[in-house]
Design brief:
Oligomer: heterodimer
Number of strands of chain A: 2
Order of helices and strands of chain A: HHHHHHHHEEHH
Largest sheet of chain A: 2 strands, antiparallel
Structural class of chain B: mainly alpha
Shape of chain A: globular
Number of strands of chain B: 0
Structural class of chain A: mainly alpha
Number of domains of chain A: 1
Shape of chain B: globular
Helix content of chain B: over 70%
Strand content of chain A: under 5%
Distance between the termini of chain A: 36 Å
Helix content of chain A: 55-70%
Radius of gyration of chain B: 18 Å
């Protein structure tokens, strides 16, 4: 039993990562990664929402009529997202402004609907909770990797602290402004997929 | 009227849903293997965007704002989108079976397309902007311009990507990059090309 729980938690972190393997939840993964701080907040918010909505749907799984399950799932998710969004507005206003519409877009994040449909509808609350945490963290991990590269190369900082020392700039090192632009997020995720697939040969296409 | 066209052109090229905001990525990547289906999905998105966004605009300005219920907007918007998608599907099936056959499979997908939800959320943000700002949505007409522009921008992007991917079939890509990896990098390069439009104004 303990082994199975471990599996449920660890699978989505690398082997079955929701972003680079299942290609879910790309929209927000790309948009919030120009800086590390919003990426971490976004990753945590998604983890919490996936875990809680998985638990709620899993508790309700035997009472939800099959025909209207999508609407029920959407309402549960939308309610949780509203709560998280209001909490962020109250306690971390700056980050919530930076994340702008992408917090609201967690509702249409495919990771959520995917996990609810594929896992929470068939499994017990505790397993679903672990599955939600695992998938949320798998998503957060990719966000953090991309955000570290972009903020470090684009701004020379991490979480707002200067990392690249001054003497580098004096010897002609320059920040790469393109890293902060939208196109580089796509190219970096492409590179992460490249590395991931060259390590996991069975995922390669044809 | 000038603002209408400015907003329209801006939301097609500069604030492109895909290349500037990454909205609707999931179906963008999944349904761009050939131009014909891409075009079908693109038209369906324009269609749904054009109906849901003005409806959500009216709800936001006439119902939620006067009652001070702004925090309910997420639930209301997603309910409106899901409801309208269902309704559109039934109407199209009843009155134009041929259109239904070509759009049919895509319509349910659109309910969870972030480009639609994102369009409504951006609209909500832009209501309060200064009228001089070219992104501002100040009246009902503006919300139609934004809906049309963001829909066309999305359709343009998916058709372009599908055309590139059709050619890409014949090229020699490193093994681990095959399929989705090279698609990401292609979209990145296309986004770079679209950056040339920034600063465009009428």
């Amino acid at each position: 039993m303990a082994n199975k729980n471990n599996e449920v938690l660890k699978q989505p972190l690398w082997i079955n990562n929701p972003v680079v393997v299942q290609i879910l939840g790309i929209c927000s993964a790309l948009a919030v990664t120009a800086k590390l701080e919003p990426a971490i907040v976004m990753g945590l918010s998604v983890t919490i929402i996936v875990a809680l909505s998985n638990v709620i749907i899993s508790l309700l799984r035997n009472t939800i009529p099959n025909r209207i399950r999508i609407i029920v799932q959407l309402v549960v998710v939308a309610a949780l997202v509203t709560i998280v969004s209001e909490i962020l507005k109250a306690f971390a206003y700056d980050v919530s402004v930076q994340l702008s519409v992408y917090i609201g877009l967690i509702i249409t994040n495919c990771i959520l609907m995917g996990r609810l449909e594929a896992f929470a509808m068939q499994n017990k609350p505790w397993d679903s909770f672990l599955d939600g945490i695992g998938n949320g963290l798998g998503y957060a991990a990719i966000l953090v990797i991309v955000a570290i590269v972009r903020e470090l190369l684009g701004n020379g900082t991490l979480l707002g602290f200067k990392i690249i020392p001054q003497w580098c700039y004096e010897h002609g090192y320059m920040n790469n402004g393109l890293m902060l632009m939208p196109p580089m997020a796509l190219i970096l995720v492409g590179c992460v997929i490249w590395v991931h697939r060259s390590k996991n040969k069975d995922l390669q296409e044809k | 009227m000038e603002h209408f066209f400015d907003l329209l052109v801006r939301s097609i090229f500069v604030d492109n849903m895909i290349f500037a905001f990454f909205l609707g990525m999931c179906s963008f990547l999944a349904v761009s293997k050939n131009v014909k289906t891409a075009l079908g999905l693109g038209v369906a998105v324009i269609f749904v965007q054009l109906i849901t966004l003005p409806v959500n605009y009216l709800l936001q300005t006439k119902v939620l704002d006067p009652l001070g219920l702004g925090f309910l907007s997420f639930i209301l918007f997603i309910a409106v989108i899901a409801g309208i998608v269902q309704l559109v599907e039934m109407i199209v099936e009843r009155f134009s079976p041929s259109l239904y056959n070509s759009l049919g499979i895509f319509l349910p997908l659109i309910a969870v397309n972030c480009a639609i939800m994102g369009g409504s959320l951006f609209m909500q943000q832009r209501i309060g902007m200064e009228p001089s700002n070219s992104q501002a949505i100040a009246c009902f007409g503006d919300s139609i311009a934004f809906a049309l522009g963001s829909g066309i921008g999305w359709a343009l992007a998916i058709v372009c990507l599908a055309a590139v991917r059709e050619k890409l079939e014949y090229s020699d890509v490193p093994k681990p990059l095959k399929g989705i990896g090279i698609t990401f990098i292609t979209v990145g390069l296309m986004a770079m090309a679209f950056m040339c439009f920034s600063g465009l104004s009428i």
